[in-house]
């Protein structure tokens, strides 16, 4: 029996040497000390021994058990330590590795153009205002002197939500809303830019959704010369200090008189080329003195105050400024097109 106990100790110690994980150790412990282990069986068999042999054997079995438990305990500590170290190494961050560059986007050319124009007008004392794209028929048409069945509405057919609610066809309704809110306060110098909608077939120069920017001034004693001075200051800051402007008579229901405004061709500087069709001029925006009926519908006294308004298509300005030939490139999200406007590339 004594040899058997010694063999159990020897075998146990030998097996312990090969243990590599905590789960293997648990298995070994069950094998050594569990109910079905040799040590337990031996303990039970001690009843058959003589009175003199029993304490000697008992002592021996206990010593072996304690010895094996002690070694198991030490090994357990060692294995736990090793596993913690391995987990730490797994999670380790190599701080010397070069960082991953975040995929930075860049400002869209249309937003850049809006910002550039806004900056110029803000510098002239204008305030940026905002408003909805889904609009009442009243603000989009009626308040701008385009009553129901007015023929000029045909050119601005749009997407209707209901009979009275539509996708706005121009940014002007935001000007009307602001006038209503501020009346009879003057001076009013406001600018608004945003998306507008038209029933249109898309091609290289048309889009059913595009960006507009409008500036509006309402004050006492506003004259056409104020409009011309503002336009010249804008044209020179936007397209260069040598710029000239030219006003041609036109018609809009919401302004009287109205004008189409040209700038010196930015490609040939006025000598004539393909872009300006040999005229030396390029049409850039529309403008006019606010129609007195529009002023009074918005709650201003048209006998006391006057106004001028300027409207432009952002895509057109951006296409001219950056030499873009197809309006659709603004909307198709081709990264090669967009990257040209990033300072990063
Ligand atoms: C109010 C009164 C008058 C805004 C104006 C234009 C002339 C104009 C077009 C340019 C190209 C629209 O994007 S486009 O198709 N706009 O020619 N817009 S005057 O007149 C206003 C605005 C608000 C209260």
Write the CATH fold name of the largest domain: BirA Bifunctional Protein, domain 2
Q: Could you say which overall geometry the principal axes of the C-alpha atoms support?
A: rod-shaped
Low-confidence stretches: none
Number of helices: 11
Structural class, from helix and strand content? alpha+beta
Mean pLDDT: 92
Strand content: 15-25%
Radius of gyration: 43 Å
Give the bound compounds.
Answer: ligand 2U9
Q: Helicity range of the residues? A: 40-55%
Keywords:
about 350 residues; alpha+beta; BirA Bifunctional Protein, domain 2; 2 domains; seven-stranded mixed sheet; two-stranded antiparallel ribbon; 11 helices; about 40% helix; binds ligand 2U9
Could you walk me through the main structural features you see in this protein, from its secondary elements to its overall organization?
By secondary structure, the chain is of the alpha+beta class. It folds into two domains: 2-90; 109-341, BirA Bifunctional Protein, domain 2. Helix content is 41%, strand content 19%. It has helices at residues 2-17, 22-33, 38-45, 53-90, 109-123, 137-140, 172-182, 224-239, 292-297, 314-322, 335-339; strands spanning 127-128, 134-136, 165-167, 188-197, 209-219, 245-252, 255-264, 281-290, 306-313. It has a seven-stranded mixed β-sheet with strand order 1-4-5-9-8-7-6, sandwiched between helices. Strands 2-3 form a two-stranded antiparallel sheet. A hairpin with a 2-residue loop joins strand 6 and strand 7. Helix 1 runs parallel beside helix 4 and helix 5 crosses helix 10 (314-322). The chain is rod-shaped and about 130 Å long. The mean pLDDT is 92. The structure holds ligand 2U9.
């Amino acid at each position: 029996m004594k040899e058997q106990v010694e063999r159990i100790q020897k075998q146990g110690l030998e097996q312990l040497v090969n243990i590599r994980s905590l789960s293997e150790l648990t298995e070994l412990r069950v094998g050594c000390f569990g109910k079905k282990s040799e040590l337990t069986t031996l303990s039970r068999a001690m009843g058959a021994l003589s009175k003199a042999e029993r304490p000697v054997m008992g002592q021996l079995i206990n010593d072996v058990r304690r010895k094996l438990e002690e070694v198991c305990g030490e090994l357990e500590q060692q294995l736990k330590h090793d596993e913690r170290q391995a987990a730490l190494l797994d999670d380790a961050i190599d701080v010397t590795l070069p960082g991953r560059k975040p995929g930075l986007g860049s400002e869209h050319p249309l937003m850049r153009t809006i910002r550039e124009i806004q900056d110029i007008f803000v510098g002239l004392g204008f305030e940026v205002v905002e408003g909805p794209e889904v609009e009442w028929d009243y603000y989009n048409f009626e308040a701008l002197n385009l009553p129901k069945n007015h023929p000029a509405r045909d050119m601005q057919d749009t997407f209707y939500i209901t009979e009275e609610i539509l996708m706005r066809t121009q940014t002007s309704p935001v000007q009307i809303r602001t006038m209503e809110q501020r009346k009879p306060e003057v001076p009013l110098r406001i600018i608004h830019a945003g998306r507008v909608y038209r029933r249109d077939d898309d091609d290289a120069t048309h889009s059913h959704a595009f960006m507009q920017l409008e500036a509006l001034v309402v004050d006492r004693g506003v004259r056409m010369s104020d409009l011309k001075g503002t336009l010249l200051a804008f044209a020179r800051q936007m397209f260069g200090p040598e710029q000239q402007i030219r006003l041609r008579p036109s018609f809009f229901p919401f302004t009287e008189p109205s004008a189409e405004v040209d700038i010196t061709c930015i490609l040939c500087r006025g000598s004539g080329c393909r872009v300006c069709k040999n005229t030396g001029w390029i049409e850039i925006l529309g403008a006019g003195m606010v129609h007195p009926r529009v002023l009074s519908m918005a709650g201003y006294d048209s006998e006391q105050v006057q106004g001028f308004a300027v409207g432009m298509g952002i895509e057109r300005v951006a296409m001219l400024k950056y030499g873009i030939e197809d309006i659709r490139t603004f909307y198709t999200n081709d990264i090669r097109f967009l990257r040209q406007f990033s300072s990063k590339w």
